[in-house]
């Protein structure tokens, strides 16, 4: 009880969050109606009933459908503000969120519309709720590298608002090396880099994220545990893993939370963190993830404190800002 209470109340940082994955069905229907676009489901209940996934792709199909009702700057603002207000209740004080520009550009929504809405909400929530933030532009790995390069060009007028670059979407069949050149340019621009790796993909993809892309962080990283040399490399480089327990459960990356690999990661000395990934689809925000780890995995007090500290340590905040949280 005291442990749960501590977990809920302690200040937290979230480092792995797709803003399009915070689109709650109620808000999705409201914005669809406002924009006079049709959804494939005729009620919130029917939509929620479809949230049963056997793998990452099952989820992504619904994720891209859901985001397709986002058309105007106000839509992106409202989506982002709803997430920030929600995690403020969970005592999240710092967020590093992804957005997927190509998921909107392909539907004719300009980069400017997207980023003005998202950034506007982040700025207002920092002022009104005291939540600090970083904004990470993520490339869709099921598309080709040329498309990522085009996206990077569109982002260039807004680099002052973009704090880093990521790589997400369908992992298997789309290894990091496919994006070697575009990430080289991102790094030359001084942008920190992270990539989803080892969620469904093999350890080899995590090696590539490190050796070919030169990531500053790894999103998920579960399957890295299959390769002891890889574990050693991640440990020696001090790379943070942004782990997503409820996401893993919903996408069948793990069978249960009782023996979730996050405990092994901590025991191996890896800098694991807890994150919600796509909370509207996976059944929970930040505190729901901690709640599940406490009640189902038996997370200890020591583990809880280390996980919470790891998130600030692994954030892209500057040194002094980090110290204030730790
Ligand atoms: N994995 C890959 N791509 C994604 C995810 C994820 O968990 N969420 C949103 N895009
Ligand atoms: Zn993710």
Topology at a glance:
Layout: H1 2-9, E1 12-18, H2 25-34, H3 44-49, H4 56-67, H5 73-88, E2 92-99, H6 102-105, H7 111-129, E3 132-140, H8 145-155, E4 164-168, H9 180-188, E5 194-197, H10 203-213, E6 217-220, H11 228-237, E7 240-243, H12 245-250, H13 262-267, E8 271-274, H14 279-282, H15 286-297, H16 301-314, H17 319-325
Parallel strand pairs: 1-2, 2-3, 3-4, 5-6, 6-7, 7-8
The chain binds hypoxanthine and zinc ion.
At a glance:
Helix content is 51%, strand content 14%. The chain is an alpha/beta fold and 326 residues long.
Low-confidence stretches: none
Architecture in CATH? Answer: Alpha-Beta Barrel
Number of strands: 8
Main sheet: which strands, in order across? 1-2-3-4
Mean pLDDT, all residues:
98
What percentage of residues falls in helices of 4 or more residues? Answer: 40-55%
Sheet having the most strands: 4 strands, parallel
Q: What is the CATH homology-level superfamily?
A: Metal-dependent hydrolases
Label the structural class. Answer: alpha/beta
Question: Counting H and I runs of at least 4 residues, what is the number of helices?
Answer: 17
Shape: globular
